[in-house]
Amino acid sequence: MTSAPTAAVLAAPAVEVRDLRMGFGALVVLADINLAVEAGERRALIGPNGAGKTTLFRIISGELRPTSGSVRLLGQDVTRLQPHMRARMGLGRTFQRNNLFTRLSVWENARLAVQVREGVGAQPFRPADAYATVTAKAASLLDQVGLGARRGNPVAELSYGEQRQLELALALATAPRLLLLDEPTAGMSPAETSRMVALLAGLDRSITLVIIEHDMDVVQAVADNITVMHLGQILADGPAAAVRADPRVQAVYLGDGAGEGAGNGAGGGAQSGAEG
Amino acid sequence: MKNAGSAAAAFAIAMLALLPLWAPRYIISLAAEVFIFGIAALSLNVLLGYTGLVSMGHAAFFATGGYAAGLIAKSVSTSFWLTLPMGILAAGVLALVVVLFALRTAAVTFLMITLAVGQMLYALAIRWRPVTGGSDGLIGIPRPTGFGIEMDGTRMYWVALALFVAVLWLLRRILAAPFGRTLVGIRENEGRLQALGCNVRAYKLASFVLAGAVAGIAGVLFAHFNGFVSPSEVHWQRSGQLLIMIIIGGVDSLIGPLLGAFVVVAIQDLVSSYTMRWMTIMGLLFVGFVLVARGGLVGLWHAFVRGVAVRVRPRSEVT
């Protein structure tokens, strides 16, 4: 069983998966995953490509239904709940590849996200910009992620890093209690990365963070605890320092320094990262 | 800017309202037909242009409105205050039933199911002779009455114009409001919207029912205006024609479908007086727009305005 040693067990974990298994035909992507992230925790999920990290995110958020096992969100079993219902319970997420309303403006993206959260999405008569709480929130979100000056631009005109920032703004618009971030700094310049790290580190502790990240500097700056996945299983988890020192972890992931791509998933077998 | 737009719109409506004072009778009836199909195309564009759903069975809702109005006008009352709401209701209810089935499937099958349901209703319109009049259709539908007067040709034109303006105004409001922006969000990226907590399915359902009900308005007008409704109004070719109107006019706008309806109705009238092959001409035109003018007539207009602006600006900077 897993537990987060740092957090006192005051309330139900923000997210808890039990005996989770995911297979596509003969291919087993996740096997016997047990994981609990306490409220307020910052957890990094690391592991070579193909380890099943994004699949786990997709199951937690409801895009995929697991072959077996259960998902609990804020103490409630959500295994059979639709994605939008989980979002309403307080689950926000960003995507590995930018997943935005590309042909709309930055402002429309933010406003859409906020109007869903504010429950005015179905209002049919007054213009969308006439809802003061929506526009105020959308504006402050864009300021928070540093896109205040770009609100009039179509998303397609933003740099990749700016689109990552907008990803985060959309996720924050849902007022999440649990935020799943799938490689938030991938493809960012060093300057953009450090801004993103500062932003994440500054998020209120009422939001629980689970972050998939390959950049160990980002992991170190943001995460309290680390879970290492490899070939569909959890290899180790615990406080960041302890996990980094774990020899098994070093063998598959950290040991050869390069990290990223060390065991490029699919066929590799147990020795995939061992040659380093 | 906004006032200028409203003034231009008011002027255009006034000119159209005055058309019967000088235009020959057949122009008036052609124009009425443009407004009727304009409403139908507009309703379909809520799905195609805004929600991003392709329906190949939209004529079914148009025809249902027509059959409902025709049956009521023939056997219950010719009051427009009865035939119009009942036509809208019948089309809306049918749309609700269809969409509940169609939304259980993915996008491509959505198209196929709307097509299949449309053709089933086409068969029903032919077979259910006692009610629908079979392949002859429902004939001898009287003109509607309202405010104690019968709406003859010219009055019917005004009714069609008024309803077109009302529908255009209403849809403009709805589509600029959060509801409409949500539909656009679905068109652009429904998975993301769902991840934000939006019940995408409910919105698709609502937009389909809205589109069906508005198509019902057009059907009611069609039935009263022509005095008949026939199974060919249910046929998929009619649905296809509505799609062609939108694509020729411009998917990204609300005025586009009216322009498209104008082009299609005018070509049909013009060409069919010379040759039976008007569908061929229509098809060529459609292919031409798809190949070189994806934005339709409205898109061409925007491109033209931009072109003029680019040419004018440097000169004005010099002076």
The residue fraction in helices of chain A comes out at 25-40%
Q: Please count the beta strands of chain A (DSSP E, at least 2 residues each).
A: 10
- Shape assignment of chain B: globular
Oligomer state of the chains in this structure: heterodimer
Structural Rg of chain B: 20 Å
Q: Which secondary-structure class do the elements of chain B indicate?
A: mainly alpha
Instruction: Give unreliable regions of chain B as ranges.
Output: 315-319
Rg of Cα set of chain A: 19 Å
| Main beta sheet strand tally, sense and closure of chain B | 2 strands, antiparallel
End-to-end Cα distance of chain A, whole Å, is 30 Å
Biggest interface, which chains? A-B, 37 and 25 residues
The H-and-E topology of chain B, N to C, reads as HHHHHHEEEHHHEHHHH
Strand order of the largest sheet of chain A: 6-7-8-3-9-10
Strand percentage of chain A: 15-25%
Please count the helical segments of chain A. Answer: 9
Mean pLDDT of chain B: 89
| pLDDT averaged over residues of chain A | 85
Largest beta-sheet details of chain A: 6 strands, mixed
